[in-house]
Amino acid sequence: MSIHPTALVDAGARVADGVRIGPWCIVGPGVVLHQDVQLLSHVVIQQDTTVGARTVIHPFAVIGGDPQHTGYRGETVTLEIGDDNLIREHSTFNRGTPQGAGVTRVGSNGLFMTGAHVGHDAIVGDHVVMANNATLGGHARIGSKVFLGGLAAVHQNGRVGQGAIVGGLAAVTRDVIPYGSAWGNHAQLHGLNLIGLKRKGYGKDAIRRLLAAFRDLFEGQGNFAERVDRVATDYADLPEIMEMVAFIREDGKRPLCLPGA
């Protein structure tokens, strides 16, 4: 353990072996820093926050701040961050609210670039990338392996499914299906995240079938509900498509992001 003499660490914080706390950092009450966490300098971890092993937090990030919610009255609420995350300068992660689940959860192996914001009660999966100044409103739900471009903003209660990509500057007011590619202001669905699929090792034949299913889902005959049912039957062997179907059928609080809508 290494704590710089200018750092302030509350007596109620728990600091594991191998943690490095740099100059002018503040670690508040109820904070848990797991093994080999690094706070480089000028990092504030306000309170009631758990930071997973080997996570690195850069200067001027404010982690575990009070929820930005007019109904918050100082109740005990928490933030949980997984392992092996890289959190860059000026990022802000807020704790949950009593009106929500009381906890904000961030997974492991994420990259949160400069100015990224995770709002209260959000749930963020593993291997998520939030580019510079990307923003999550309260209660947002972000699946694993999602990429959010710079200055993209997900509306409160919004959902972005696993493996999706959201372009820079997109205002995401509608839910984005798993493996979808959405961009524009306001964001529209423009197809599948082909670059992400290729990077994850999907071959040409697999991508062709996913594209065929996508076309049947959004461009086929019949109304949307009928197409969803038909795709669920015709592509039952494709777990990615079944994930899309489950996502669509779930009772989300935001409308669905559709092509041209």
Please give a handful of descriptors for the protein shown.
261 residues; alpha/beta; nine-stranded parallel β-sheet; 28 strands
Characterise this structure.
- By secondary structure, the protein is α/β, with parallel strands linked by helices.
- Helices cover 17% and strands 26% of the residues.
- The protein has 4 helices and 28 strands.
- It has an 11-stranded mixed β-sheet. The chain has a 9-stranded parallel β-sheet with strand order 2-5-8-11-14-17-20-23-26, with no helix packed on it. It has an 8-stranded parallel β-sheet with strand order 3-6-9-12-15-18-21-24, with no helix packed on it.
- A hairpin with a 4-residue loop joins strand 27 and strand 28.
Short description:
17% of the residues lie in helices and 26% in strands. It has helices spanning 194-199, 204-219, 224-234, 239-249; strands at 2-3, 8-9, 14-15, 20-21, 26-27, 32-33, 38-39, 44-45, 49-51, 56-57, 62-65, 78-81, 86-87, 92-94, 103-106, 111-112, 117-118, 123-124, 129-130, 135-136, 141-142, 147-148, 153-154, 159-160, 165-166, 171-172, 180-183, 188-192.
